[in-house]
Amino acid sequence: MSFLNDLLFYDYLQKALITSIMVGIISGVIGSFIVLRGMSLMGDAISHAVLPGIAISYMLGISYFYGAVVAGVIAAVGIGGISQNSRIKTDASIGIVFSTALALGIILITKAQSATDLTQILFGNVLHVRTSDMWITAGVSLLVIIIIVVFYKELLIATFDETMARVYGLNTRFIHYGLMVLLTLVAVASLQTVGVILVVSLLITPASTAYLLTNRLSIMIVLSSIFGASAAVVGIYYSYMHDLPSGPIIAIASAILFVLVLIFSPRQGVLWPKLRKMKKS
Amino acid sequence: MEQSLDVKDLTVSYSNKIAIKNFDVSVDSGKLIGIIGPNGSGKSTFVKSVLDLVPKDSGEVQIFGKSIDKIRKNIAYIPQRSHIDWNFPILVKDTVIQGTYPKLGLFSRPKEKEKKIAMEALKKVGMEEFADKQIGELSGGQQQRVFVARSLSQNADILFMDEPFVGIDIHSEEVIIKILKELRDQGKTLFVIHHDLTKVEDYFDDLILVNGGLVAAGPVAEVFTPDLMEKTFNAPLAVLENMGGKLS
């Protein structure tokens, strides 16, 4: 296979592969919590909201990482602030913040850089991953996995029964914003692989697929990571072989897996209950 | 007798609407206490503000003579069933183990000892054979028993329950009330939000009657009276008796 051959020879392809596997894994991990907390739209919003941060970083000549993280956190706080301090519901405040941030980001990037960069940021181009991007992703991955492993029990109880968590003294607001920071980091790490527009697909689709297959959070997180990483590898392969943008391929690969599981999952699938019914009658 | 809960002049409001006003009550420890009132009377708000889950406008709450923050790990809480996502990917046994979290503290994980505590608690509520089921596969009464088991494995001195008997089968209700009475006999203090009048006399030692504030509090024999009930529920006696209360 020429892909495997090229993988051995081309340094940039190796970097792309390693980076996207890491991105698939951490998106699966964080995505599991995002899906269970009913915050899928929040994931979408924050991944778009990093755009102006990236633009401003370019303008200042600093690493896009810092600007993106600051912008993501501002968006999370902004969304929380609007819905807690007014009668506007969370979905509407997410819509306001995310569309504004995206608009601002597009304007700033168009001003600061050429249009090709904008396309890459929006849709991802995993084959352009630089060594520094790979190390940022590795750092983020390590941090995310350590935090989830160490605070697994707190994240579990705060997600499952927030009131009990608060009664026994956990600061659930801190946990919420902590997760938002991790989500921002994952979104930034995913930029090169899937692009701003489709970060949400890698966050939500593999986690939802895993959710249909298991009754335990720990297994859901592991499955979700495997699905995310697999979709990312498929994305690299087609992106390289057929010269397509990696983000959309990854999103479609995740979605195909989701649909297969939705139909065939032994517990939650739509097929087996119907077959069982037909057998009975 | 030691005072378990001491509330002074508690006022709580939500966006300019006062939910409870000038609430004063103190309760002895080692009692099974019903918090009774109609829907929207502020009984949930009362409990939430005692637990510091909603901000107070004014007033002071002490539990065992201490502020709530010093005693949190010793408080068990059982939410209303409707507040739980029953599709959550969690098994019965892992739900019960959560009761051991408060005393484990950050960084430590439940180990064999905690698993044993959880299994014993599950046995106590007669649910050990369901340990490996996902919580959504259970009936309402079984779900409530699992949450009672969770608070048993917490081994707290104070327990708050929000409408535990709503929508559950008679067998589960009997199992739960028997356990609550046993806990009371061991010296624990239990607060149960309850919105109807059935079995009030069988279940509780004391009552806290709530309707936008404190109506009355004290032993069932003293406060479970026709005129206090009418005052609590803003309804004539005939209606209340239809709700199943045998009013003396």
Automatic annotation (TrEMBL), chain A:
As for subcellular location, the record says: Cell membrane; Membrane
Record key words, sorted: Membrane, Transmembrane, Transmembrane helix, Transport
Question: Transmembrane stretches, by residue range?
Answer: 12-36, 56-82, 94-114, 134-153, 174-191, 221-240, 246-264
Please report the record's description of how this protein sits within the membrane: Multi-pass membrane protein
Q: What Gene3D superfamilies does UniProt report for this protein, alphabetically? A: ABC transporter involved in vitamin B12 uptake, BtuC
Q: Establish whether keyword DNA-binding is in the entry.
A: no
Offer one Pfam family short name for this entry: ABC-3
Is this entry keyworded Transferase? no
The entry assigns this protein to a family as follows:
Belongs to the ABC-3 integral membrane protein family.
The name on file for this protein is Metal ABC transporter permease
From TrEMBL, chain B:
By sequence similarity, the record places it as follows:
Belongs to the ABC transporter superfamily.
Q: Where is the ABC transporter domain?
A: 5-237
Record Gene3D superfamilies = P-loop containing nucleotide triphosphate hydrolases (3.40.50.300)
- The answer to whether the entry has keyword Mitochondrion is no
Q: Write down what this protein is called.
A: Metal ABC transporter ATP-binding protein
Q: Does the entry feature the keyword ATP-binding, yes or no?
A: yes
Listed A to Z, the keywords are: ATP-binding, Nucleotide-binding, Transport
InterPro entries for the chain? AAA+_ATPase, ABC_transporter-like_ATP-bd, ABC_transporter-like_CS, Metal_Ion_Import_ABC, P-loop_NTPase
In its UniProt record, a GO molecular function of this protein is: ATP binding
